[in-house]
Design goal:
With 258 residues, the chain is an alpha/beta fold. It is 24% helix and 27% strand. Strands 4-1-5-8-7-6 form a 6-stranded mixed sheet, sandwiched between helices.
């Protein structure tokens, strides 16, 4: 069918029917802008107040896994003229502009006001943890997605909002992460207030039941919470501390092989 992603099984099935040529839709060309004065390329000597830049590696790898390539990438400090030029250059050469950082409300957060100047900000801020400082709009007529600067929040919002939108741009019905019900393996301390997508491992209990193991800090800056994660555990806003055995919905992160 039109809009169907061609995976392993689809390609094999087409070949078995003698099909050797297909008309396909071009995948969106992505432009990635990473902003922040404090960012330093990995491998360089770090000065006080600097951090090694990781979002470009993280997001490029994630988007590649989802079937998309980053056509152009810039790492720019918190300088409005340089950021304005980068946004316009990416919009001129790409189908979608994605940024990380600079969309909050700090004195050096220039991305959101620049997008409003060069196009439009259609909405800003999500009722979600991690991922509150998220913006969506257009730059010079090109779709813009402003992801949070913290790496875990950037990855989570890329999965929840950017990925479905890219599928729409391809003319496909979005294929979302499959959901299943699991029970907490151990108590989980948290404060009520915002719905949360906690990173967790999927564990099969002795009786065959499915358990979610949440290990370590869930801070949006802690990339280690993504490592080995099988699930995004959906915790409703009104729930505070959770007891072991609490049943919750979870999104399955592992992509199918076929």
């Amino acid at each position: 069918a039109a809009g169907q992603r061609l995976g392993v099984a689809e390609l094999g099935r087409l070949a078995s029917c003698g099909m050797c040529q297909l008309t396909v839709t071009q995948r969106p060309r992505l432009g990635l802008l990473i902003s922040g004065d404090e960012l330093l390329p990995p491998g360089r000597q770090r000065a006080p107040g600097q951090i090694w830049e990781s979002n470009s590696a993280l997001l490029t790898a994630l988007l590649n896994r989802l079937g998309y390539a980053v056509a152009d990438q810039r790492v720019v400090g918190d300088q409005p003229e340089q950021l304005r030029a980068a946004l316009l250059q990416l919009a001129a050469g790409c189908d979608v502009v994605v940024s990380t950082g600079g969309v909050s409300a700090g004195d050096s957060d220039w991305i959101r006001p620049l997008v409003a100047e060069l196009g439009a900000v259609n909405f800003w801020k999500l009722f979600l943890k991690p991922g509150r400082p998220f913006a969506w709009g257009q730059v010079a007529g090109v779709p813009f997605f402003g992801l949070p600067g913290n790496p875990v929040a950037a990855a989570v919002t890329a999965l929840q909002l950017l990925w479905p939108a890219l599928q729409r741009l391809e003319g496909a019905e979005p294929q979302l992460l499959p959901r299943l019900k699991v029970r907490l393996e151990a108590p989980l301390r948290r404060g009520a207030g915002r719905p949360e997508l906690a990173r967790a491992q999927l564990v099969v209990a002795a009786d065959g039941g499915l358990l979610a193991r949440v290990a370590g800090s869930q801070a949006s800056s802690r990339i280690g919470s993504l490592q080995g994660a099988d699930l995004l555990l959906e915790i409703p806003a009104e729930l505070g501390a959770l007891e072991a055995g609490t049943e919750l919905w979870a999104q399955l992160l592992r992509l199918p092989l076929l």
